[in-house]
Amino acid sequence: MHPSTQARDRATVPLATLLDAPEFEAQLLSPAAAELAADTELARRIRSTPVASSIVIELDDPGGYMMPGDLLLITGLAITGDPGLDRAYVERLHAAGVSALVFGLEPVHAEVPDSLIDACRALDFPLVALPQHIYFAAVTSMLNRALETERTQALEAMNTLARRLTEASLQHRPAQRLVEQLAQQGTGWAVLQIEDETYRSGELPAGLPLETTIAELRDRLSAQPRTRGTLPTVFTTVTAGGWGPTAGSGARLRAGSDSATEYEVAAHEAGPRRARSRGSGGGAILLLGRAPRLTRTDLTALQLAANLVGLVLQLPAAQSMAVDQLLMHLMTDSPGVTVPGAERDRFARLLTNSFGGDARRAHAVIAIRDPGRALGNDPVQGDGTVASDAAWLRRLLHTPFVEHRARRLRAFVGAPPSPGELARAQELGWLLAVSAAHDFGDLPSAMREAEEHARAARHLRRHIDGSAPPASETWPLGAAADPVVARAAAAHWVAPLLGPDQAEARRALTVWLHHHGAWDRTARELELHRNTVRRLVAEAQTLLGRDLEDPLERARLLLALAALDPEE
Q1: Cα distance between residue 29 and residue 4, in whole Å
Q2: Residue 322 pLDDT class (50, 70, 90 cuts)
Q3: Has this prediction a pTM greater than 0.90?
């Protein structure tokens, strides 16, 4: 196991701190200079070798007195020049997790024995030579100062990162924001998989076996023993070569390098295993990868981010659900009141910020279970819903305004669901009914419209999107049995004619359809000129985008207009 893996709870500085200090004139003898020049990745790994402390022990086997990450300084009292003995000596240091060997010339050896150099090079074990006039005390003092500076900087960085991660968990789309904050601290990448949704950020290399890595780490996490109040961390190393095109939202990928890079990857569970999941991907898992290895700050940040993801996934929990119910009640069910202009503007700004974009209007969404759809091992069948389904809808629609009520989910969104989101909902056995856009001051009307669309969606067993252009199959033949369904489908069917500016065209079309397309009879009833009637009907046809020469289209339009205004 690499020393960095064993010494994660200690502050470290890279071996380059000693190599680059001009006052010590340190010479790196292992690996060989030619090998380092030919292999830039090896050179980078050696220079970044973590050093947690420095210690002087002149024993044949000092490993029992050292901790992983310690830098060993010797003058060579235990070095005999025998290749076999020196090789065994270096192997014991390597096995003990010693970060590097520093050899001081004189008074024991005038030069570093070749047998020791060969033994170190065989293992790519760092060997550093110091000239005669350099005292070990000076090296130790310098490293101690560097380590103390590192501890202070790491604490400051961790405080800053903790604040940013916490803020990210409170923002719109918190899962993606958390991944972005976790990945941007240095060169590396972070991936969060929640059920079958994957959030990515950072520098993901081309050729990275991401799905295989996630599956491996999931298996290892599930095999870890549980300690009350803690979640285990598992590690692996992956190698990926070159850099490729963009791999996902928030991901930055480099181009131009064909060399393979080794990444150390750590994974944490994010959220309780018992959380009910409708997807096929299992629970949430959070990965963090760095090249060449992860730091102590990285691992602390990973644990904090995993805990924050767990909090996000537990919403709506008992208290949060109560707040959600109260918010939705205030937004949809409270009696109308006159709100002063300044307060109305403030309310609109708050909603815009909550929706996470530049939304100026909102859509109401009703989600119901498809009553004829069974979902395998899902414990809730038919048209049943449970309160925890609200968390799923939050993630699907990216909105904080979701509640569970009366066997359905209700929500407000700043933008209507995308085709992909509608398809995902249908795949999981849900039907969505979406209202047209309404001003923030008219949210109760938006919810009533969505409720009517939900009745139609249940009859049709398909989504009803009141914000989208109507499709020919939207008008249900069974609408005659349910006036509410008929009105909802009709409003969707003739939506382009429902504005106040289209009232005259709508009236002309209705009368014309009642008279089976007779222009003169329509003109007499409307007391308009025949050419005016033709113009108004043509205007209605253009707005609707429908072929009025088609008898079926005309019949549907007549049914829809009659459903909207039964007295016509």
Answers
A1: 21
A2: low
A3: no
